[in-house]
Amino acid sequence: MFLNKPLVMTGPLYPTRNSDGYRASLSSSPQRRTMSAFETRVSLVLALVSQASSVSQRLLMDLASETAKYAFPRRFESSNLEEALMSVPDLETVKFKVLSRKDQYEIREVEPYFIAETTMPGKNGFDFYGASQSFNVLAEYLFGENTTKERMEMTTPVFTRRNQSDGEKMEMTTPVMTKKLQDQDKWQMSFVMPAKYGANLPSPKDQSVRIKEVPRRLVAVVAFSGFVTDEEVKLRESKLRSALTNDKQFQVKEGAQVEVAQYNPPFTLPFTRRNEVALEVERKRSYQYK
Questions:
Q1: Whole-model pTM above 0.85?
Q2: DSSP string of 92-117?
Q3: Most exposed of 14, 105, 155, 228 (fewest Cβ within 10 Å)?
Q4: Cα–Cα distances in Å, from 87 out to 90, 100, 237, 268?
């Protein structure tokens, strides 16, 4: 396609002399020389190499920027040695304000945010197969499997929670409508959506992905390191519920189900991983009007 019209150069390659011995200007008698097919190919290759080099530099800069988010993590305010060793990637996360801090947990007021959510297969929330399958479904939506092919940035944490079911109740989500499941053994995995989109998130192509807004709420949170298992979650939830019975200001909200937040990618060392178990709480009546 590049050889349909020969590439032409005007003017001699080197200065020439006229019959009187003087140098002739390029503009006085322009000469035309057709570039050979070999020279055309060489020029094309050089142009492609230059373009590829520019693209490679941009990719390397993007890679360095993404790597820095994991190589130079952030840390939460810690209350013990285990928590002091935990770190989280420098990614966008949920915004919250700590209202009170106890030895075993802290109470947070979490600002509203949007999530992309899918139902996990099986009855366990943290088996490798189910977690990987659900994570991949949400990651595909985040990285372009949506109606506008929008590639969004990764956020943290990844939430996993037991389904909250109270029958055939319908709830409106943005921008789709979903139906609550009857089976409380099911678990949901969700990604926090970048705040810049607000409610204007692209619709998922995969119908198993739902977009919904999580309203402002109060939660009691306990952090722990290592890898998350169903047994560990049950133990942490039980201890948190027990500790909250002695809280003079807050109590577990009726019907609250446990929610687990995992902040780190799989390659993170176990003792530096940050995981959180959370329960939604509310102020006790004696403190509601203070």
A1: no
A2: B---EEEEEE-SS-EEEEEPPEEEEE
A3: 14
A4: 9, 21, 22, 9
Please check whether residue 137 is in contact with residue 237, taking contact to mean a CB–CB distance below 8 angstroms.
no
- Asked if 147 contacts 203 with a C-beta cutoff of 8 angstroms, the reply is yes
Residues 6+ apart with CB under 8 A from 128: none
Position 235 pLDDT exceeds 50:
yes
| Sign of CA pseudo-dihedral 93, 189, 143, 111 | negative
Dist. CA 17–CA 10, nearest whole Å? 17
Place of tokens 């006229």: 18
Q: How far apart are CA 170 and CA 168, in angstroms?
A: 6
Q: Give the confidence band of 21 by pLDDT, cuts at 50, 70, 90.
A: very low
Cis check for the bond before 175: say yes or no (omega within 30 of 0).
yes
Terminal Cα-to-Cα distance of the chain (whole angstroms): 79
List phi, psi (to 5°) of 110. Answer: -100, 130
Q: Determine contact, residues 68/90, Cβ cutoff 8 Å.
A: yes
pLDDT (mean) for 196-213: 95
Cα 171 from Cα 188, distance rounded (Å): 16
**139 CB neighbour count, 10 Å cutoff:** 15
Higher-confidence residue of 34 and 162: namely 162
Convert the pLDDT of each residue in 121-163 to its tens digit: 877 778 778 888 899 999 999 999 999 999 999 888 999 987 7
